[in-house]
Amino acid sequence: MSDKQIQDWQEKVRSTFGEESKMYEYLFSTMNNFYYRYMETTQDKNLQTKLLSDHKWGATSFEGSMVDALRLSNPVAKKGIIELAKSVPKGQGALVKYELSSEVKELGINQGEIHFRSVIHWGFPDFKDETKMCQKKVIFNYGDLTQFRKELALKLEETCENFL
Description:
Layout: H1 3-17, H2 20-38, E1 50-53, E2 56-63, H3 66-69, H4 75-87, E3 96-107, E4 112-121, E5 133-142, H5 145-160
Antiparallel strand pairs: 1-2, 2-3, 3-4, 4-5
Helix pairs in contact: 2-5
């Protein structure tokens, strides 16, 4: 690429993602695609990014089918879900909780930091026991818009390895 082509391309990226609101839109639409692939359950479909707490965005879903929940290959989660299925009578409707979130520390055109987290929680019914969950955290630091655009999905994919 010539210097002119590179400058034109960088300007195009800046005009597309340059405003913070556009960067959030891109983050949210990318996350929405990951919910579809990794977090939709028999009861929770069409998940959308929402505010979970200050500067933390994401989605939560619940799986009521232990058969579907056990399709995970994550050995820690699988063992916990088996214990959940054995300990909760079928009529009580045990659930497994999934969450994908992004805590935005900084979201600028020249740099940023986002902390991604995926959680599988089998601490039914209140989901407060942190010994009954497994999580994966990935910190995404970027130095410019091009890196943000190119690596955002890769960092989310790495975070979602927890759901495989």
